[in-house]
Amino acid sequence: MAELQFREALRAAMTEEMERDENVYLIGEEVAEYDGAYKVSQGMLDQFGPKRIIDTPISESGFAGLSIGAAMMGLRPIVEFMTWNFTFVAFDQIVSNAAKVRYMSGGQASIPIVFRGGNGAAGQLGATHSNSVEALYSNVPGLKIIAPSNPDDAKGLLKSAIRDDNPVLFLESELMFGLRGEVSEAEDYTIPIGEARVAREGDDVTIVAHSKSYWLAMEAADELAKQGVEATVIDPRTIRPYPIDAVIESVKTTNRLVIVDESQPFGGIASEVGFQIQRECFDYLDAPVERVTAEDVPAPYAKNLIEAWMPSVDETIAAVKKTLYM
Amino acid sequence: MAGTSTKKKAPARKRAGSKANGTAAFTPDVPDVQIFRQSGHTHESLGLSPETVLDMYRNMLLQRRFEERAAQMYGRQKIAGFLHLYIGQEAVSTGAVWAIRDTDPIITAYRDHGLALARGMGANEGMAELFGKIDGCSRGKGGSMHFFDVEKHFYGGHGIVGGQIPVGVGMGFASKYKEDGGCSLTFFGDGAINQGAFHEAANLAALYDVPALIIVENNAYAMGTSVERSRGDAQLYKQGYPYGMKTAVIDGMDLFEVYGAFKQIADDARGEADGQTKPYFVEVQTYRYRGHSMSDPQKYRTKEEMEAKKNEDPIVRTRLYVLENDLATDEQLDQIDEDVKAEVMASVEFAEQSPLPDISTMYEDVFVGDVPRVQ
Ligand SMILES: Cc1ncc(C[n+]2csc(CCOP(=O)(O)OP(=O)(O)O)c2C)c(N)n1
Ligand SMILES: [Mg+2]
Description:
CATH topology of the largest domain in chain A: Rossmann fold
Helix content of chain A: 25-40%
Oligomer: heterodimer
Number of domains of chain B: 1
Mean pLDDT of chain B: 94
Order of helices and strands of chain B: HEHHEHHHEHEEEEHEHHH
Largest interface: A-B, 38 and 44 residues
Bound molecules: thiamine diphosphate, magnesium ion
Low-confidence stretches of chain A: none
Radius of gyration of chain B: 22 Å
Number of strands of chain A: 14
Number of domains of chain A: 2
CATH topology of chain B: Rossmann fold
Radius of gyration of chain A: 20 Å
Distance between the termini of chain B: 53 Å
């Protein structure tokens, strides 16, 4: 094990995969000479040169589409978006091409590509820069979506994503790039896509939360423990395919579920998980499924407003208590 | 459609296309580019009174001092998020705004403080927005990147590179539709040329003869990427040709060049002389003195380059002009600076005093009218 920042874990994953397979390249805005807008790719230009670490103009639609084409020809691109907010100008490439070409061609073509970058709100950045895109993209069949919460998962899952023969969307967070954690140094360390991690076990309630929200859930669980409430916390790590079985298993013992999800509430990840759980666990539930999400308005700038807008530890605790009729 | 002639009337300039289809020899199109650089303007030749020149000088200084103070307040964590400073580019905003009509709509990217202050937004409303307070120009909802003052025909403040360009063209389209004689001004950075939105909007503007100035503020860099490193052909002014637009290239470090150029092209775009509305592609060559945002190590450029550009400081140059032409004394200019600094300090005080937005305001302004939201 080594202690790495989240960004270093991502870099390690990309570096190892690029050393392993010469068809892997990294492309995006400021990834090469600037060392990455958030320093994820720091030093990679020196190691791999400009053929494989490729700076682009601000042309997301162009370099996303170009890389989809390259992937159809057998390359394995890693496309870095400065943040996922800027993928909306590349939406068509991701949704119409990356997700659908294989299906439309009756399985003739495949698109082994990773799209990655920071997702979700990152402080006071205002409405255009605070989107959580998992709900939007997970609505589209044909895309795998990963949203890890810690450096170890980031490394193991990014390596799996790069090796996957399908389009994979990898959601990071500007607020987590500096997060430190123990990361496996095992040779060829990969984590299978689609497996949840049970981070904490308790009998009273299940809380499921991915990416930054996972840390809220853990904090809430610690606080609840002081009040005598023991929560199971599940980090799904993957949004599509969603590891719903792990949640079902847990809810069958705790009989209560709270979903923390920074997406907006209407048609969000929480809506989908809530639906599946009421269908699969109807007889086991002792309370309606609760969710904690962003507010159903665009992200505001003012400090107090964005704090109120974001899912919080307090809201999570309140939601848990509601399921316990406390 | 066979037999129907194209609805589009003769374009503003000669096109080679039709000839190329006939028997005549192919002659390449000759681009219509006007260069506004070292024109030898004086305030008199431009019809500017000494008072107006001093007003313009004051406005540039207001932008500069406002942002210097904002940077300081960012350091004190009174301001958060991204803060992109316009310092170095003030002649563009002031020159353009003074040249056009007060009702001509303006839209720009996230580097928006300068244009907002040029358009007459108060320093108070600007600073309060940066502080995220209720008296801010966008009620504390927008922040630095999303300044708005619709009453003054300033339509933002847009965070997605290139996203505002079609919208700006649409504002000109509305003017043509309503026949109100307006002309829209759409500003964006050199990096935004690389967005599809620019190319689609430019073509529509030309196709529909929209009275719109499509203005790239070429400040040499998009974050750490120079224009040379982002374009197959780095000569941005050529980007109007493919769409059949008239083109202007302007020295954006020279207040009088900017003013003179915008006066001429805005009037031409509204069709003042020929009754024909039309778009312009405008490259304003300028320079950003500060980093891209507040955390930019600026390793992509040399100290020498920055020093050389500082000699072109539009505010210093205007000051020299004023002194050399006896439009004001040193003391008078210092007094202007003192006044501006006091105005900016007062805006900091105003922003400090202004309350945080009430949480209930978070739910306002999503729709016109009451629409239920999901809880
Ligand atoms: C579509 C999109 N991609 C990326 C970004 C991130 N970004 C913000 S500003 C910027 C550079 C823009 O440079 P330029 O257009 O030259 O404007 P300047 O900052 O020089 O005023 C980038 C890449 C964004 N906001 N939108
Ligand atoms: Mg620029």
